[in-house]
Amino acid sequence: MKKFCRAESTRPKNISLHVPFLLLSIPCFSAMVDVGVMSGAIIFIQEDLKITEVQQEVLVGILSIISLLGSLAGGKTSDAIGRKWTIGLAAVIFQTGGAVMALAPSFKVLMIGRLMAGVGIGFGVMIAPVYIAEISPAIARGSLTSFPEIFINFGILLGYISNYAFSRLPAHINWRIMLGVGLIPSLVIAIALFVIPESPRWLVVQNRIEEARAVLLKINESEKEAEEKLQEIQAAAGSANAGKYEPKAVWKEILCPTPPVRRMLITGCGIQCFQQITGIDTTVYYSPTIFKNAGITGNSELLAATVAVGFTKTLFILIAIFLIDKLGRKPLLYASTIGMTVCLFSLSLSLAILSHAKVGIALAILAVCGNVASFSVGLGPICWVLSSEIFPLRLRAQASALGAVGSRVSSGAISMSFLSVSRAITVAGTFFVFGVVSCCAVAFVHYCVPETRGKTLEEIEVLFKDEDDLQESEVEMGDVECLMQKS
Q1: Which domains does the chain have, with CATH numbers?
Q2: What is the pTM assigned to this prediction?
Q3: What is the rounded distance in angstroms from the CA atom of residue 232 to the CA atom of residue 212?
Q4: pLDDT tens-place string over residues 348-382
């Protein structure tokens, strides 16, 4: 039993050779195309292909929804061909879709490429955390799992910069180059496949023990430590095989939850949905449209303003990762949701009353930057942290996946309806509605989100139980103690 509780005092010597490639590449290529690049490219796509507002909405928003197909298929695919080659498959599908988009002569062909890219991104987003969790040591797992959020924001910033850099080229060329730039990170993945090892856990499940041992020898300090880890993985693989029917029971518990599980689901799925329905994706995707309504006219000036948004978003995610274990989840969520509320109402005011005035333009830029800063310091990263903390181990993967589905569907619905809603109630009115939703998010954080900083997973589970549940748990523990004494 000791080896399962053993603290690891050293960091594997070769962990830096493979994990950073994945942490850098997978989030970057998805973010650059999904958010950063498309936010600027859509201006020139509309100008070149003469697409309608509805087509713009579909083009922007469909990726969030179609990526679910890749994520859902990624689980079985990674079990069949391995984690490493699922990453390669994701890169190939994405590269094909990206190339189709860059060369598209019409909206229909552009959509085909967009759908393919979405499936590739779905595969990549699903397999990246699985691979990281299975290849990383316990001592490094916390820091490693925080890097994807950094690189997602860094990818958005790179997308904005590439948009600005190519904006002065002719309209029928520049958006194609912008989308082509998004292929570069997936090329890095292709190169990394010749460097990174296969997941030792998957190799053990496939009964390829010697290959798993060889991988563990590369990423651990000593042969003894590698052998101990191999034994742990073999034991865990045996438990997983013994409990192969467990997922049915898990989904039954999620669909017919007990009161504590119901509270966990409300908190976990609720925070995921609020992350999107407060309008962050529309702020990032359509920031050029927002600034155009504020009074900025030139395309280069519009894209320069979005670069400022990208810098702000990247900076504040770094601040959040530094503060999340020092100040706690709930204080940062309060600061985040309250800050977003103030900025969204300020943006609505500037667009409604001060549009095309210098002070209005300045206030709009400040409000958009403030909104993404507030989001990045709290609601953005903490949403995923809470989803991984609040659910008990038996439910964590499926319940977190359920929340992710809500997040993606919400993102797609908001992104695909923004232009139509803005035409109906104006851009200022739309952001006023987002401000009202953000007010609701403040109330949700107050009433539904507990503080989890510094607590063990077992202590967090207790936070969702009421007095009756706690008394029942105490009775059950008493029965167990009696049985142990008798035995």
Answers
A1: 13-195 (1.20.1250.20), 256-465 (1.20.1250.20)
A2: 0.69
A3: 12
A4: 999 998 888 888 889 999 999 999 999 988 888 88
